[in-house]
Structure formats: C-alpha cells, structure tokens
Amino acid sequence: MVSISTNSKSNSGTQAQGMNYKGALALLTSLFFMWGFLTCMNDILIPHLKGLFDLSITQAMLVQFTFFGAYFLMSLPAGWIIGKIGYKMGIVTGLGVAAIGAALFFPAAAFLSYGFFLFALFVLAVGIVILQVAANPFVAELGTPETASSRLNLTQGFNSLGTTVAPIFGAYLILDNTSIDSAGKAEAVQMPYLGLAIALAVIAVIFALVKLPKIQDVEEEKAEGSVWKFRHLILGAVAIFTYVGAEVSIGSALVMYFGDEGLHLFGEAEAASYVSVFWGGAMIGRFIGSAIMQKVSASKVLAFNSVMVAALIVVSMLTNGYVAMWSLVLVGLFNSIMFPTIFTLAIDGLGRYTSQGSGVLCLAIVGGAIVPMIMGVLADNFGLRNAFALTIICYGYILFYALRGHKHA
Description:
By secondary structure, this protein is mainly α. 78% of the residues lie in helices and 0% in strands. It has 20 helices and no strands. The longest helix has 28 residues, at 114-141. The two termini are 26 Å apart.
C-alpha cells in the first residue's frame, strides 16, 4: 500500500497548480457517488439474474462473490499500480477499467451467459478497487490534516447517496421489465450498464484533462517487527470481514426476501424501493452517529448498534408481513457507523504500522464475497428466513469486538 504524507509541510508544498482544493474535492466527490451506485446495483442484479438464468440462491450470490473477491485479489496490486503511475492517473485508470467492465454487460446479455456476466462484473470491480485506493488518500490530502476526517465523511455521505439512488434506478430500468422471454429480460440490463459505461468514460476523460493539485508520496518509515503482533488489529480485521459479509448478505437478500422467497409482499420492482430505504437509512445513520460520537465513545455506540441489528433480525425471523419487512429495513440505520468505527478502533495506536494495518483491514472486505455465499447455501437448504441466523452470528462477533476485542493487549 502507498503511504502519503499528511503533515503541514506536505500540504504547503501542494498548493494547487490549476484547480483549487474545493474544485478538486467536488470532482472527487462524484467518484464516491459512482462507486456507491455501482456497488449497490448488485442488489438489483442478483434477483434479476436469478430469474433470468433460473439460479439457486447460492448461484445468484456468485455476483457478490465475484465483486468482493476483486477486493481481496486487487487491493495490494492496486496500491503498487498507484505507486507507479500516481494518484491522478490511478483514478483515470480505475474509471477506464470500470467503464470497460460496465460495457461488457452488453455482450454478456447478447450471449445470454451467466459466466460472461460474472466476468464483466469482476472487471468492473477491479476498476472500482483501483479507484478507491487512489481516491481516498487524495481526498485526505486536499487540505489540512485537521479537517481530513471531515472531508472523508462528506465524500462518504455521497457514497451513501449513490447506494440509496441505485435501487430506484435499477428497479425502474431492470426489474420493472415486462419481457417474457429470456432475451428480452437480458436486454433490460444492456442499456443501463452501457449508460454507466459512457458516464464512467466521460468522467475519466475529465480527470485526464483537468489539472489537479499535486500530492506528494513519501515512503513510510520502516518499522521493526510485524503488524500481526497487534491483537486489536487482527480481531478488527475479523470484525470488518463479518460486518461487510453480513451487510452485503442482507442487502443482497432483501428483494428475494420481500418477494417470493420469503414474505410474499411485493413484486421485484416494488421490493427494490425498500432496498433504497435500507441504504438511505445507512446514509442518515452515518450523520446521526457522527454527532452522537462527539459525546459517547465509539466502542459503546458500536456495541449498542450491534445489539440493535441482531434484535431487529431476530424480530424479522420470528414475525411476518410488514413487521418482518420493516425490522429488516431498519437494519440499515444501525449498520451505518459500523465500518468506519471498526476501522478506526482497529488502527488505533498502530503508529508507524498504520499503513500496513489499513492494508490488512482492506483485505478483510473479502467477507462480502464469502459470507453471502455461505448464506446462499443455508438459504437453499433451510430457507432464506432461517439463513439470516448467520448474520446474527456476525453481529454477535462485532459486539464482542466493541466490548473487549478492540482493547489493546
């Protein structure tokens, strides 16, 4: 992973030559929106492709396995790439690769090949990984170190906006498709993703042409020993693994759970609107949680939220109708602060090991690939409602981390 300087000397040496900090931040914010949008589109793809190819839930969850598997395979190589070509060209490269991946959905639909869809999704995900590795430190460096957290929270808010809008977009253009034959259903995916490919390509061209403020890479001072000696970091990586896995599993299952696979409340298109509410709750909860943590310790807020999420899932499993639906939708509100809170607790006190620790935590995002697959196997064998028990175990571990695991040995 590439480390960047955040001291005042570095910032003074990066006075904008061309676009100023505010203009650059506004442009970078569009990236956070786009990758949030593209990531959440998977929640629409899963039920659509499941019906199109008559897949089991396990087979449908290969969408998330492929997408989040790219994080595990590409996080470290992406850091090496950025180190060679720089942050600006890293952003351009990430956008370009993501555009190619989105464009590949067109031939995937034409060939009616699930394997082709998964390949296109993997290419798209690789682009997003490169994009994230480049954009996050760029945002942190666009200003003083004291306000870096504020800038990241702002851009993450637009990431959540993307996850909120995507299900509405996908429901209208994809799930609301009335075609009876497979070819017609497959074609419903072509134009939305071709439009996304064009949008990504246009943004890539803009980034290639504009003059962004330069940020300076510096080598992190080599630390003796291994980052693996920090108990709270390793336990934190497991917490990231379980959190991302549980959140992705729930988001992926909502349309199926509200429809024919579970509660029988809605058709796919209408169910997708409640997926938007799920992610919208996460956006609202992020701002509420940020204010609360000014007064209450992060570990206590994390513990409370993990208990609330587990309780809501239990309620959904034991009830029916709208009570079961809304209890699961509300999970998004309490999920909101978990990732950044776990991340912060896990790197606390690492000092010169912080960069290495961040790399370990990024690799743990692979939970979004593995846990949904396990949930899919459970759903196919024991029913989707019962499969949610797996996510309760995940949040139980997060409660342990909040109470004891985050403490330094």
